[in-house]
Q: What sequence folds into this?
């Protein structure tokens, strides 16, 4: 990531931390999509925003929407293998959880950020069970 992108990510995380979780506005699907928009100058989150309003409608929307992996590929990310020589770095997207309801974290400064119903949380990269890691 460039220095400009690192600054954008720090500001994005700071702004998002002040929002309460709200389905279709500030939630787990929109957090990584909105970061991608800030980073890339796109408006891909618009396809997600305001299409659901509770957990049930969010699950229904997700089942009928493109997969997380398909969305990441379409946004220009590629899946990488993580190891000692190629660790998770700032800006990576980390997919965890069940395939039916995946969790997508954004990496920054050794932590993985995730918007949960209790707000924005940071987890150490070593404690999250990654299914896949994606880099732009």
A:
């Amino acid at each position: 990531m460039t220095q400009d992108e690192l600054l954008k990510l720090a500001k994005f995380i700071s702004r998002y931390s002040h929002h309460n979780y709200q389905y279709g506005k500030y939630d787990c699907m929109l957090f990584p999509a909105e970061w991608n928009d800030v980073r890339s100058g796109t408006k891909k989150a618009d396809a997600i925003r305001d299409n659901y309003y509770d957990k049930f409608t969010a699950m229904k929307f997700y089942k009928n929407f493109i997969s997380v992996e398909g969305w990441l590929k379409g946004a220009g990310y590629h899946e990488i293998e993580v190891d000692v020589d190629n660790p998770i770095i700032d800006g990576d997207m980390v997919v965890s959880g069940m395939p039916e309801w995946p969790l997508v974290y954004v990496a920054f400064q050794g932590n993985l950020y995730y918007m949960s119903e209790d707000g924005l949380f940071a987890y150490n990269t070593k404690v999250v069970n990654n299914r896949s890691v994606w880099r732009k």
Remarks:
- The first helix runs from residue 3 to 16.
- The two ends are 9 Å apart (CA to CA).
- The mean pLDDT is 94.
- The longest strand covers residues 101-108.
